[in-house]
Specification:
- The chain has a domain of about 45 residues.
- The protein is about 30% helix and about 20% strand.
- A three-stranded antiparallel sheet has the order 1-2-3, covered by helices on one side.
- A hairpin with a 4-residue loop joins β1 and β2.
Length: about 70
């Protein structure tokens, strides 16, 4: 099992998400929950497509970290 870092961003109309290690993959939804479901499905579909085309599946290397900063 691989774990890809996913970035979720609040937008004017809802949420968007992308996986930095999987170029070309991005989703948008009206709620965070919907967007989470879409990115999970999107990653699976994206990886299936790479395999079907005989392309290498990228290793997850991106990391996400929340840094507490005194502001």
């Amino acid at each position: 099992m691989k774990e890809y870092a996913v970035v979720f961003e609040k937008t004017l109309n809802g949420w968007s998400a992308y996986a930095r290690d999987l170029p070309g993959l991005g989703v948008a939804g009206t709620t965070y929950s919907e967007t989470e479901d879409l990115i999970r499905e999107g990653i699976e579909f994206h990886l299936e497509g790479l395999r079907a085309d005989g392309d290498a599946v990228p290793e997850p290397v991106a990391r996400v970290m929340r840094l507490p900063i005194s502001a």
